[in-house]
Write a structure and sequence with these properties.
mainly alpha, 80% helix, 0% strand, membrane, transmembrane, Reactive oxygen species modulator 1, transmembrane helix
Length: 79
């Protein structure tokens, strides 16, 4: 299966969409989790929320890009 420009564009858009969704949920849940720790400094709380945001964006972006590649690139041609 060769990856043409249209397929790569679909994968890129899937990764961007997954990254946006992952960053949103990471920020929400990371911010909530960081607000629960009262004994740490504000900088540490921001770091915790930022790590959750970037981690969520990376994971969701990767899996949505892979799913787009599997399902969206040459689907009818495979069978």
């Amino acid at each position: 299966m060769a990856l043409n420009d249209a397929c790569l564009r679909k994968i890129e858009y899937g990764a961007m969409l997954g990254g946006a969704v992952g960053a949103t949920f990471g920020a929400l849940f990371g911010g909530y989790e960081a607000s629960r720790y009262r004994s740490v400094s504000v900088a540490q709380r921001v770091g915790l929320a930022a790590r959750a945001t970037l981690g969520g964006a990376a994971v969701f972006g990767f899996f949505l890009a892979v799913g787009t590649a599997i399902r969206g690139c040459g689907g009818p041609d495979r069978f």
